[in-house]
Amino acid sequence: MKSLLLPIFLFFSALPLAAQGTNVAFGTIRQDTRLPVEVTADNLAVDQATGTAVFTDNVIIGQGEMRLSAARVLVVYRDKNTGIARLEATGGVTLVSGQDAAESERADYDIDTGEIVMSGNVLLSQGQNAISSNTMTVNLSEGTARMSGRVKTILQPGSNN
Fold first, then answer.
1. Three-class SS of residue 17?
2. Tens-digit pLDDT profile for residues 34-71
3. Is 2 left (phi over 0), alpha (psi -120 to 50) or beta?
4. Are strands 84-97 and 129-139 parallel, antiparallel or unpaired?
5. Considering only CA atoms, which of 104, 111, 63, 107 is closest in space to residue 85?
6. For residues 131 and 124, what is the distance between their CA atoms, to the nearest angstrom?
7. Predicted structure pTM score
8. Per DSSP, what are the bridge partners of residue 161?
9. Cα(159)–Cα(124) distance, rounded to whole angstroms?
10. Can you tell me the distance from the alpha carbon of 139 to that of 26, in angstroms, rounded to the nearest whole number?
11. Which fold is adopted by the domain 2-153?
């Protein structure tokens, strides 16, 4: 009887989380958002008037242990080119930190806050576990993520042996 109650309890205790969103760990370390951002791509177009740069085709961004890849990344610079303000990635976005990986249609990285908002069919993989949602907000400084909007996961009840 005990072995049946635990999966039922876990299922029903997870329901409010699915409706309200849930917090999860992301990455194995806290990310220092002051580290340099390295961008590699097949193409680059710079617009001095708007203070932006667009990297396209096979874009890979690295900052410390974090890696982000996408088909297109818009880089928005601060006034007077004093650094990067934000990155907007679209087209098959993949974010990897440690053993954790997330996929989505879009990711917006605010350098100052250290937050990445991934949206559109988000899938987070952590080892054998996977969680999907509409949106995931990653706080790189804390190594955490918050998933919201139709959060779904499969809970494994474990073995009775």
1. helix
2. 788 899 999 999 998 888 899 999 999 988 888 999 99
3. alpha
4. unpaired
5. 111
6. 5
7. 0.76
8. none
9. 24
10. 8
11. lipopolysaccharide transport protein A fold (2.60.450)
Q: How many C-beta neighbours within 10 Å does residue 48 have? A: 9
Residue bearing tokens 């990635």: 89
pLDDT band at 160 (very low <50, low <70, confident <90, very high): low
User: What does 98-126 look like in DSSP terms, one character per residue?
Assistant: TTEEEEEEEEEEETTTTEEEEEEEEEEEE
Alpha helices in 21-147 (DSSP H): none
Give the residue extent of every domain in the chain: 2-153
Closest among 120, 82, 86 to 102, alpha carbons compared: 120
Place of tokens 């297109």: 72
In sequence order, what E strands does the chain have?
22-25, 38-40, 43-47, 52-63, 66-77, 84-97, 100-110, 115-126, 129-139, 144-148, 152-153
